[in-house]
Amino acid sequence: MRKIPTLFVRDFERDNGRYVTREVNPGCEWVLDGEGIATRKIDGTCVLIRDDGTVAARREVKPGKTPPPGFEQVEADETTGKAVGWEPADQSSFAKLLAGIDTSSLAPGTYELIGPKVNGNPEGYAEHALVPHGSIPVEVPDRSYDSIAEWAAAHPTVEGIVFWRKQGDPDAGMVKIKRRDFRTDRRSLDRC
Question: Residue 88 forms beta bridges with which residues?
């Protein structure tokens, strides 16, 4: 659950980092070289099923705040100072939603919790569910800035794309790009 780098460099001079430029983030060139697989970025909240079957939920702790009991920090965001990690799911704000999902047959790994009471339900699910990360491949005609921006504009209900250098192995490398990272105004795209 380490922070996944964004494919393109953010434009902090022009718009305080809200949008990306055409410049590829260092270390992410493999995506434009055609390596790896493109998968749909699901809009929910991250959940971990451990090898022993216990479930943890992603948690951010703001600077100066006390972490919840059992919190396991994975990393700290240098920009915001937030600690990011896992807390036991049964004490998280998603405990009731997760209690209604049978996780006993799910493989260890990370999942996205989606459904009616998660992030306004952008995925449109009638019930709460766990979707394995990297499980929905997408086709992007080519991996140029323009092609990815056009794909994002053509898929307004999709949060974005996560590129996996080796499918199912987050340690091999992952890169993301969100639909909202691009300017939607065609004239703005042409000026990038």
Answer: 56
Residue with tokens 């105004």: 185
pTM over 0.70: yes
Q: Say how many Å lie between the first and final Cα of the chain, rounded.
A: 31
Whether residue 111 sits in one domain with residue 94: yes
Whether residue 127 sits in one domain with residue 80: yes
Asked if the structure places residue 191 within a domain, the reply is no
Residues 163-187: tens digit of each pLDDT: 999 987 778 899 999 999 998 644 3
CA dihedral 176, 102, 61, 77 (to 10 degrees): -20
Structural domain harbouring 92: 43-132
pLDDT in tens, 123-137: 999 999 999 999 999
Q: Are residues 47 and 120 in the same domain?
A: yes
70 lies in the same domain as 113: yes
What is the Cα–Cα distance from 97 to 93, expressed in whole angstroms?
9
- Cα radius of gyration (the chain): 17
The ranges of the chain with pLDDT < 50 are: 185-192
Asked whether residue 72 is domain-assigned, the answer is: yes
Q: E strands along the chain, which residues?
A: 8-10, 20-24, 37-41, 45-49, 55-61, 72-76, 83-88, 109-114, 129-132, 160-164, 174-178
